[in-house]
């Protein structure tokens, strides 16, 4: 058993609110990712995915703050590192790819300059060697005609090409941990498939650990080694891919799967039941999903469920998981 690349333990992230208790965006979250492992993280908008990603990168926007827990990268507690050390780690050893690539790119610099600057900053490489390494990277993310694209400006690129450039920037230093935060959602289906294939290939080649955040549970079926579902800042189900898709047990997971699935059993399960409640606010007490859950019992509104292991590696946070 190798040591995890990233190990999150009991993480709490809060955003203060004026005259109200803080928003607890991430609540007591545990997650470890191994070398060459892709963990998919699925959840609806506002469930805490980006906040988790930023916390791991130590980039929670103030006045938000990490209020508890620990994040270790290759055994080092990130909170204990000085800012200089952290800057070196970010970009070089861990990197993040986000959606909306255009906002990530500097419109005044060419593609080659932007990728090259990152490499120069972290490795001190320069001149012909730098240029060669950047062009190799452009080839690696399958940008056609890399010699010419090296001198292109961001506005000259299509959305798919811009996303590849952002990936090249994230990956140029061969980080050992990568977060992709909804990075493929703005792309059309064909381009998205190409980008995913590319990410998968790079993970294999460099044995990278990866947290792949998405709102589309369907993508994780082809792409991830394990899948986690986050709801109201908590992981409610996590399992190896095969177990996750063969035996989803959290009612919310089943709902998510039914929403995209063509599987008649899953669809009819939800169509037969009453419409889920429209109140989407997590409950203050008990199970956060209880207000929307068609299976909820009085007990669910009273007691917060813990994450428990139902099958090897398959964990669920539910008092009444869906029977197999
Ligand atoms: N900068 C911020 N200031 C205040 N609240 C925030 C901020 N960022 C996120 N939140 C809150 O944290 C929760 C989780 O948000 P986020 O992590 O962006 O979710 P997701 O990425 O899953 O859509 C939401 O309730 C959101 O309103
Ligand atoms: Mg987000």
TrEMBL record:
Sequence intervals crossing the membrane: none
Location, primary (coarse class): membrane
UniProt keywords, alphabetically: ATP-binding, Cell membrane, Membrane, Nucleotide-binding, Transport
Membrane topology category: Peripheral membrane protein
Domain ABC transporter: 8-257
Pfam families: ABC_tran, oligo_HPY
An MF annotation (GO) of this entry: ATP binding
InterPro entries attached to this UniProt entry: AAA+_ATPase, ABC_Ni/Peptide_Import, ABC_transporter-like_ATP-bd, ABC_transporter-like_CS, Oligopep_ABC_C, P-loop_NTPase
Family under the similarity heading: Belongs to the ABC transporter superfamily.
Name recorded for this polypeptide: ABC transporter ATP-binding protein
Species annotation: Benzoatithermus flavus
Taxonomic placement: Bacteria, Pseudomonadati, Pseudomonadota, Alphaproteobacteria, Geminicoccales
